[in-house]
Amino acid sequence: MINFEEELKKFHPSLEVEEAEDAIHHHDLSDMAEVIVGILQDEKRQSDNE
Q1: Cβ–Cβ < 8 Å for 41, 48
Q2: Integer Cα distance of 26 and 21 in angstroms
Q3: What gap in Å lies between CA 37 and CA 6, rounded to an integer?
Q4: Is the pTM of this model over 0.70?
Q5: Residue 3: CA count within 13 A, CB half-sphere
Q6: Longest Cα–Cα distance in the chain
Q7: Which of 8, 10, 20, 32 is deepest in the core (most CB within 10 A)?
Q8: b/e sequence 12-49, b meaning 16+ C-beta within 10 Å
Q9: Residue 27 DSSP class
Q10: Tens-digit pLDDT profile for residues 1-50
């Protein structure tokens, strides 16, 4: 059974659109291109060390 009192304690209201945008823009996230470049560089370093 679901304990509604416990679930209500865990509840956090969602951010407003502007607050969400600010949180996303100020969070340092890598895009997929940066991730792939990093993986390729690591693989190249490993193959150079062998």
Answers
A1: no
A2: 8
A3: 44
A4: no
A5: 4
A6: 58
A7: 20
A8: eeeeeeeeeeeeeeeeeeeeeeeeeeeeeeeeeeeeee
A9: S
A10: 889 999 989 988 777 877 777 777 777 667 788 889 999 999 999 988 87
- Here the tokens at position 46 are 């490993």
Q: Which tokens in the block code for residue 35?
A: 């991730």
Residue ranges per structural domain of the chain: 4-48
Could you tell me the end-to-end alpha-carbon distance of the chain, in angstroms, rounded to an integer?
57
10 token code pair: 């865990």
Tokens of 19: 């607050």
Asked if 23 and 15 count as a contact pair (C-beta separation under 8 A), the reply is yes
